[in-house]
Amino acid sequence: MEDEEAAAVLKAVGRQIKAWREAAGMRRSELGAAIGYGEEMVSSVERGRRIPKPEFLDNADEALGRTGRSRR
User: Fold this and answer.
1) CATH code of the domain containing 23
2) Contact by Cβ (8 Å): 48, 13
3) 2 falls in which pLDDT band (50, 70, 90)?
């Protein structure tokens, strides 16, 4: 059950980051360049396949103008 819950949380975080990125009018490659990660990493996080490091979340928050939102 815990694995299913963890997977659901990862997917929810990824969906939110994708929604904020799209609202900012950015492509995955642009967000990746802005936060120091590759496009593939951004894609993997958005799809819930990779656990984002705190630095990824902090940098994405700043780049997307969502200061502190994804770490709450």
Assistant:
1) 1.10.260.40
2) yes
3) confident
CA distances from 71 to 1, 2, 29 (A): 24, 20, 22
Average pLDDT over residues 49-59: 96
The answer for residues whose C-beta is within 8 angstroms of residue 43's C-beta and 6 or more apart is 28
Phi, psi of 35 (to 5 degrees): -110, 0
Task: Report the pLDDT value the prediction gives residue 69, as an integer from 0 to 100.
Answer: 55
Q: Tokens in use for 51?
A: 């656990």
Domain count, the chain: 1
Angle among Cα 47, 60, 4 to the nearest 5 degrees reads 35
* Tokens (6 digits) for 50: 């990779």
